[in-house]
């Protein structure tokens, strides 16, 4: 018998259906939303310049912030996040300043996350992208702790744009162990099969960032 938690519908409910290529057009976003509705996913994730969008009830709208480099001043990130929320985003995926993480300046990591959190308070969901593939284990742990201290709702592995790579099982497990269920874990970057998606969930992911959502979900039982 199929485990209901591993069914197509259950996994779809964890998916942020994502379109973040720089040349994405409003017509492509409309197609993304239609596909998301048909697949039954949790959310779509788009660039803030493409907001507002028309979406069916029940489909969350996420926008990225400081994407993809994270090398923006905290005040700019805060303003970008607030603007995205004003134009319909209910979830913000924030890229940290990676230099702060690589130098283990976790006070700076926490401070910029807190600035964005203040600009988009709950019930907006704040997901913090740490680029785990570029970090040591100690740096991953430090970033997760900083995100929790700053009031984030999720920590997220990757933008999918960094040359170091995307999500991997070790990082997801480490992130999940660090936050202990107090924050969600979003695995994103390079997840292109049902097997990979299930492995990420087994490792502790509670949300999946997918651009190949239809192909991934097609590999799961009804």
Mean pLDDT: 97
CATH superfamily: Aldolase class I
Main sheet overview: 8 strands, parallel, barrel
Count of distinct strands: 8
- Name of the CATH first level: Alpha Beta
Count of discrete domains: 1
Roughly how much helix do the residues carry, as a percent range?
A: 40-55%
Q: What integer value in Å does the Rg equal?
A: 16 Å
Q: How many DSSP H or I helices?
A: 9
Percent strand equals: 15-25%
GO biological process, one term: carbohydrate catabolic process
Pfam families: DeoC (PF01791)
Family: Belongs to the DeoC/FbaB aldolase family. DeoC type 1 subfamily.
Main location: cytoplasm
Please give a structural write-up.
- By secondary structure, this protein is of the alpha/beta class.
- The protein has nine helices and eight strands.
- It has one domain: Aldolase class I (TIM Barrel, Alpha-Beta Barrel), CATH 3.20.20.
- Strands 1-2-3-4-5-6-7-8 form an eight-stranded parallel beta barrel, surrounded by six helices.
- Helix 6 links the parallel strand 5 and strand 6.
- The longest helix has 14 residues.
- The radius of gyration is 16 Å and the shape is globular.
- It is found in: Cytoplasm.
- Its EC number is 4.1.2.4.
- GO terms for molecular function: deoxyribose-phosphate aldolase activity.
């Amino acid at each position: 018998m199929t485990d209901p938690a591993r069914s197509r519908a259950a996994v779809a409910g964890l998916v942020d259906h994502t379109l973040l290529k720089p040349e994405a057009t409003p017509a492509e976003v409309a197609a993304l939303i239609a596909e998301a509705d048909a697949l039954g996913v949790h959310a779509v994730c788009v660039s803030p310049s493409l907001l507002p969008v028309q979406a069916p009830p029940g489909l969350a709208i996420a926008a990225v912030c400081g994407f993809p480099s994270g090398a923006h001043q905290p005040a700019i990130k805060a303003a970008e996040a607030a603007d995205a929320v004003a134009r319909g985003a209910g979830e913000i995926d924030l890229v940290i300043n990676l230099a702060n993480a690589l130098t283990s300046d976790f006070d700076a990591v926490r401070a910029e996350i807190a600035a964005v959190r203040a600009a988009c308070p709950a019930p907006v969901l704040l997901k913090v992208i740490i680029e785990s593939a570029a970090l040591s284990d100690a740096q991953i742990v430090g970033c997760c702790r900083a995100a929790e201290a700053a009031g984030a709702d999720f920590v997220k592995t990757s933008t999918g744009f960094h040359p170091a790579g995307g999500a991997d099982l070790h990082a997801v497990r480490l992130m999940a162990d660090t936050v202990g269920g107090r924050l969600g874990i979003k695995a994103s970057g390079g997840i292109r099969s049902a097997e990979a998606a299930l492995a990420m969930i087994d490792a502790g992911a509670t949300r999946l960032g997918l651009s190949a959502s239809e192909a991934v979900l097609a590999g799961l039982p009804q």
